[in-house]
Fold this protein.
Amino acid sequence: MKAGVAALAAGILGGTGVLLFLLAFGTDYWLLATETCGVFELENSTLGTSEAEIPTEVRKEILTFHHEGFFWRCWFFGEGHPETIWTFWYTSQAHPKFCMHGYLFPMPIALGPFPHPSYDTTAVYRGFWTAFIILAVAAGLVGGLLLVCGVPFVSPRFYKVGGGFLLASGSLFLLLVFLFVVWKEFAADFQKYILLERSEKCADAVPVHVHYGWSFMFAAAGVPLVLLSGLLFYLVGRDIMKSLE
């Protein structure tokens, strides 16, 4: 009876945690940022009446919103919108919105020939981040599948192995969250990273405001749930196997 109650509690915690991991993986809101560098438009200017027109770039200051995740890096212009995180909500976003692939997020991607001005040395971490998030999601799904196959106590070994996969998934996501915090707080140069190829044209005084997004919060909230669920399933499996000996 005790094992059944523990398995039920572990199933609820694990299902909720894995769902949060899938939301964190599938949504593109790990990082939220706003800046006012704006866009650059070509304007014709002349020095005299007899001289030819010379095209020059003029910066038009516009509030720009950026959000990023594993799959996409997107931005949209928000003239007339308040500079709050609620503007990033799906129903509040201004249109049109522009996106590019961001499979190697959150670590910076060098555009054009190397070394590019927007290149960031922290890009060395991006491969680890990508590998860890894929392994973490895969481990959570495999663990959930094994635990479903273990119901109702047909094979207690499935509970131990499934619990181990959930522990691995939770540990990997914990590492992901830690890497992301270290990158955001200590390593990243957001003036280059957010502005990308415009970083050389934008003034140094252009403020870039960066926030943690709800995808990051989903991952952080799912970590203790999945770790606790994995531990409970492992202990339940071990208890059932001992009782069968």
